[in-house]
Amino acid sequence: MSKRKSTVVAIIAAVIVLSIAYSAMSSANIDTFSNTVRIGYFPNISHTQALVGVANGTFERALEGTDVQYRTFNAGPAAIEALFTNQVDITYVGPNPAINGYMRTHGEGLKVIAGAASGGVLFVVRADSGIESPKDLAGKKLTSPQYGNTQDTSLKSYIIENGLKLAEYGGSVNVLSADNPDTVILFLKKEIDGAWVPEPWGTILVKNANGKIFLDERDLWPDKEFATTVLVVRSEFLDKHPDLVKKVLQAHVETTLWINAHPEEAEKVVNAQLKVLMGKELPADVVHEAFSRIQVTYKPMKSSLLKFAEEAYELGMLGREKPELSDIYYTQLLNEVLQEMDLPLAE
Fold first, then answer.
1. Domain topology for 121-223
2. Torsion sign (Cα): 193, 197, 202, 208
3. Given this model, what pLDDT does residue 67 score?
4. What SS3 state is found at 300?
5. pTM for this predicted structure
């Protein structure tokens, strides 16, 4: 077997393991205890603070004397559902699931308390797809991770902004939903032409599935900055336990600073933690390249979240009521932490 074929087989095996692990972890249930903080996150590079914070024990140190529990998810809607059914108290999640949860509860269910990651999203096309410019997307079949998620909104908005129409509205561009591991297999089988995906899946498609980068989403945003992941809290938990929420934010900020000061070590910690969670680590070069496109942060990045909401509304994903998100952010506790650490306050 050739070296390339061996690599492809290994990648397919890896993504199948990741997919099975995701499903198993999503089915877990966590009981409610007093004096407990339950934190949700994804086994995903864009949730780096959670992976590093768990591995390094940062949350436990900040919350000394409190029972800290964790739950992992594969998709944002599942994380928001767990938040609203009292299975987690705080979770890392993408902007659009946070927006949907806020709208669903008429602004009563959750608050965004910090940013977590910026960037780390690629539009990758098959190298032999014939796609060289936006007009070449006509008649093509593309995927996003999930209907209505942040990448799905970005992809569909990009298509419309470039003068094309989606198949669901009588146009020729088909956008399907596929789990990230399945997208790799669809690329290898040549059953799709492109995918708008978060890291590390974009890098995996390029390195192991004959993909090429058509667009780095950072290039569509001012200063190349936009929210990929935010930190949200259930409003009821925030009202009852602001002290615990503040301690989580302290750990979140400390971990962010550590990652940015020790990027190479952080890559190793993240990969090791992925192996703990899913039984399989990623190739070091994949992790390194994916990390190069992500900026971990605690900045709220409000303007990009509001833009995502506007795009989702225009695509008909938020119902008939135009989103009113003036109170979706609560940054008072974050600013208290930043002030105590002598850092610039969040806007």
1. D-Maltodextrin-Binding Protein; domain 2 (3.40.190)
2. negative
3. 96
4. coil
5. 0.85
